[in-house]
Write a structure and sequence with these properties.
258 residues; Jelly Rolls; three-stranded antiparallel β-sheet; 8 helices; globular
Length: 258
């Protein structure tokens, strides 16, 4: 049984939490294996088109919302994710809009720069579900506990990051993680020979401007941080082949905005 009060204290302090074995059951594992097989099949059969997506060079791609992802959410709801979110965030699940997504890190790719997912002023909560074991070599997310508490510019963050404790989210099949979107984090390099797959559910405070997603009948890949525009393609190429200069560019832009 989860000690939610204890979990909330940890979550408030660190900005993330891992819930072990929450989805450790036969129904979940059967669905995970089905989703994994469909993702691999889609990747292999449509590789030529997937190569054109924004994020392919860096090795991070999104998954578009599909019926399979919605089924995983249904299992989470059966396992009282509503109670967990309510305790951790002080808001009912009914007060959030829900976006269905996923992230795939490609073999021998995926190393990112530290970043946050959106501004601190627009709070979002991410729930991540690995559909198989996620080890050190698979490109786990690395984050800095407690970095969600303070709004800080990109250049100031990088001046201080060397002094900060870093945690990699090493997860077993059946675990989930929950984190604040504003926490500083990055994807690490996937040193394995397989796709690293995490299903994501993004909770944002309800808004009249929220656009309901089209739920696809099957798995499809989508752009990640970089899009398919000429400008974004150029930025992605520089970030991969000249990462030091791209990093300096981001530092300069951040410094000039101070």
């Amino acid at each position: 049984m989860l000690n939610l009060e204890e979990k909330k204290l940890f979550f408030d302090k660190n900005g993330f939490i891992i819930l072990k074995n929450l989805l450790n059951n036969k129904n979940s594992f059967t669905l995970f294996d089905q989703v994994k097989n469909e993702i691999i099949m889609e990747y292999n059969s449509n590789y030529t088109e997937i190569k054109k997506l924004g994020g392919f060079l860096t090795g991070n791609l999104d998954l578009k919302p599909s019926k399979e992802i919605v089924k995983i959410w249904a299992i989470l709801k059966e396992l009282k994710i509503s109670e967990i979110i309510s305790e951790l965030t002080n808001k009912s699940l009914n007060e959030y809009d829900i976006k269905y997504a996923g992230n795939v890190s490609l073999p021998n790719k995926g190393d990112q720069f530290y970043h946050t997912d959106g501004p601190k002023s627009a709070r979002k909560i991410l729930i991540g579900v690995p559909i198989e074991d996620l080890n050190e070599i698979d490109g786990p997310t690395e984050l800095i506990p407690g970095s969600h508490k303070q709004r800080i510019s990109y250049w100031k963050f990088h001046l201080r990051k060397f002094l900060k404790k870093k945690i990699k989210l090493i997860l077993n099949k059946g675990d989930i993680f929950i984190r604040e979107s504003y926490i500083w984090h990055k994807g690490t390099k996937n040193k394995s020979k397989k796709l690293r797959i995490v299903i994501l559910f993004i909770l944002s405070e309800k808004s009249p401007n929220f656009i309901n997603q089209d739920i696809l009948s099957g798995v499809k890949f989508g752009d990640n941080m970089f899009k398919v525009s000429i400008k974004d393609k150029f930025r992605e190429i520089i970030s991969v082949y000249l990462p030091f200069f791209y990093f300096l560019y981001k530092l300069l832009i951040s410094f000039l905005k101070k």
